[in-house]
Amino acid sequence: MNKGKLIGVVGLTLGLGLITNQQAISANRVNDYISAQKYKKLPTQNKVNSWLNHPNWLGVDMQYRHGKPEGVVVHETANPSDKYSDNAIWNEINYMLNHADSAFVHSFVDANNVVAIADPSYKSWGSGAEGNRRFIQTEQTEVNSKDAFAREIWNLANLQADYLHQFGLKPELGKTVWSHAMVSRSLGGTDHTDPDGYWANNASQFFGSTYTMNDYEQLLEKVYDSQYSAKYHVGQRVQVLNTAIYETNGNSIVNRRGKIGTVKKVTHHDYSNSHFEYVIDFGNGVTNQHIAEQDITDKITYHAKYHVGQKVQLLDSASYETNGNSIVDRRGKTGIIKKVTRKDYSNSHFEYYVAWDDGTQ
């Protein structure tokens, strides 16, 4: 086993770097430098592994404690050899995937890459039981220059801002924004101090300054506010508009027009007039992975399945009217619909006034 690689995993599983008290006040030179460079946002490389952290992975409940993440956690690999390898991020990712039953995070960043490896809708194993059941977790590989460090922090902020937008959260230190060190101090179940030492050393070496989670949260807020906000969020009920034609990947969704479903995932994706695409579950195993924001609405309009004058038959499974009266004695009867009224009841959204052929109503 490569010694350097072992150190990288130790950064997650055992914890290196014992800097516990860092200056609370920063000159914020790192953020000023980032702002002056006018970096472009990098696209997130989707390397999510379908076998990893699904709802019951390895027989373990991978759901968050409240069903969705409550924020984000910042990590770093604690692997100094990362600084001298152009493939460091891929080496770290591959090693972690090969040892995911011990520890893994949702994503990685360095100066040139933003890589998602696990579904943020489910837990990862990187910050102890309490952190795992609350937060989406991102790892930084170690870099070795002023500009690389600034770019890495920029990439991290953009990715984590995306996560917060995706799940309808706003950046707030100690609530939705945490470091591994903060989890150790406040929630327990782990004793790691990353990224405190890594940030302090690089900020001092390259900027003659400090860099703390307070500084990062300020950058994250700025990035968050500059990004487009998704109009819909995970868990929300939406309906496909009757004008919808294509998904963002070019597939037709004409046959989904008017369908109502639940948002399962939100991803930043510029397409036509949209800045986000959605995974929508319509029930009964029917899903679409790339529906553009412009093609859905939360102002749901239900359409009656049957209309006035139509001949219908009462199912043999019918038991009650919407007012609670029994209709068991009407089972199998045929009749004509006289009136349709909007009303939610059980799995229905309409009730019908029916005149049966035998003269009953």
Structural summary, described in words:
The protein has 361 residues and is an alpha/beta fold. The protein is built from 8 helices and 14 strands. The strands form 3 sheets. A 6-stranded mixed sheet has the order 1-4-3-5-2-6. Strands 10-9-8-7-11 form a 5-stranded antiparallel sheet, with no helix packed on it. The chain has a 3-stranded antiparallel sheet with strand order 12-13-14, with no helix packed on it. Strand 8 (260-271) and strand 9 form a beta hairpin. Helix 5 crosses helix 8. The longest helix has 21 residues, at 146-166. The chain is elongated. The termini are far apart. Residues 1-26 have low confidence and may be disordered.
Topology:
Layout: H1 3-13, H2 29-37, E1 45-46, E2 71-76, H3 88-98, E3 107-109, E4 114-116, H4 128-132, E5 135-140, H5 146-166, E6 177-179, H6 180-186, H7 196-207, H8 213-226, E7 237-240, E8 260-271, E9 274-283, E10 286-292, E11 296-297, E12 311-313, E13 334-345, E14 348-356
Parallel strand pairs: 1-4, 2-5, 2-6, 3-5
Antiparallel strand pairs: 3-4, 7-8, 7-11, 8-9, 9-10, 12-13, 13-14
Describe the structure concisely for a colleague.
The chain has helices at residues 3-13, 29-37, 88-98, 128-132, 146-166, 180-186, 196-207, 213-226; strands spanning 45-46, 71-76, 107-109, 114-116, 135-140, 177-179, 237-240, 260-271, 274-283, 286-292, 296-297, 311-313, 334-345, 348-356. By secondary structure, it is α/β, with parallel strands linked by helices.
